[in-house]
User: Fold this.
Amino acid sequence: MNVAQTLANYVQDPTAPKPPHLPRPTGLDHIPDHVPADLVLSAGLMNGEDFLAEPYVYMANLHRDFPPVFYNVSFYVNGWTLTKHEDCLFMLRNADAFRNLDAVPFPRDEDDYFFFIPQEIDPPHHRKYRNIVDPLFCPAGIKKLEGLIRQRAIDLIEGFEHDGGCEFTTAFGRPLPVSVFLDVMGLPQDMLPTFVEWADQMIHGETPEVMGAALAKAVAYLKTAIAEKKANPDQGVISLIANAEIDGRPLSDKEVFGFVCFLFIGGLDTVYATLNNIWAWLAQNPDRVQEIIDRPDDIDAIVEELLRRFSVTFSSRVVTKEIAIRGVTMMPGDRVSSCLPAANFDPEVFTDPLTVDFNRPRKTILAFTVGVHSCMGGHLARMELKVALQEWLKRLPKFSLKPGAQIVYKPGGVIGPDIVPLIW
Amino acid sequence: MPKVTYVSHDGATTTVDVPVGENVMRGALYNGVEGIAGECGGAPSCATCHVYVDDAWTGKVGGPADHTEAELLEAAASAVKPASRLSCQIVMSDALDGLVVHMPETQY
Assistant:
């Protein structure tokens, strides 16, 4: 059976998860015949020299240096890359032609397969899962968490504000989202150091073995937590999911696990990287720090602009039927990636895109994507960023990079500096 | 519980219960009413839950909640009219029981 038939015959049944068996081509030896040779490029989107030197300048320059649609060849996975805002919206809003199957590159047992929920669930089932957690993750739900998030931020800052400096990523960038995650999930705060260690090893582990071992430990812990919350429900998200029903039936163990596990891997690294990027920039732009301090009523617009300027990741899909973007034909089975930081720098939509401008007219930014799969944690992320800025700048309005410190970026699918040493 | 009637572009109507305090965008999403995307989840940071408030209700519902909603509405995909609102910004109350909103041809 060819890929087109496999996809046409694939019916997604969350109660009986089956692997979609899609090709994952890598490298120059695996380029489909329908891809025009002049569009085959190796952009080094996650690991090239230019990317690593100045990732956001690199992303802005994609509009100048690359065609708007090109076939990117990499060691990770080959596929189409979209950089235009309009094209990314088209892809992300067309869940029928661009599906989210096999979205998480995580080795799973084919005979005991599970979906990462809701990311890998397409319509018509997708919304049913979102409806379970929406009351908590919607703006009104997150608003209820504001006080708690604020207290977590204050506690962290008060721990180091008299030290004259800190390494931001370990002192704040990592522990803030992890402690908030524990609160939201209904897990105890004394797990903070353990979860921080797992999250660090999963993302920055020296070898795949270290990364896999950390994930395995987290998975084992989460499985125990799910069983515990089934027996003794509380107000947290694990309880909410473990005891939820859709279509009049309780969620299966695999659904609950796939959902909880996705929340764990989904939210931690992106908020972490976003905070690190923004603080590295603030530390080098004291006049802009003052501007934020001077405009307390504009904090929401400020957060939105910072999310546009420092968006951290990509969003990929699998093509299900022949479709063209800007005259470029894509075939079933092709992978397509919306390069979100580049789309947020599309000069046709955002003039002078690298400039942080808190007075920009509101337009659709792609930090959290759009369409049915748009990020469910977006409101939580916005709140964390807002509270972090407010509480930090209240206590530490003047800070800068430690003399001699260099901001170094690591290769990978989430853009962020490795360390951000600060002094004040 | 207050009711909201959603009228699709082709005239089909769906009436659902929307609890007090919940917004009209979410009322559609929870009940599978098509025609409202609400893709940002009510930040508000998009204009994909655009509706036209029925003439009989514009007085009670009122205009855009703030500057942000007004600005976002300018970018709506379908024609913007005096009765245009982002449905995520219309919060249900007993006073709005029976509300009728019309959905545009497209949200993108």
User: Anything to note?
Assistant: Chain A has a mean pLDDT of 93.
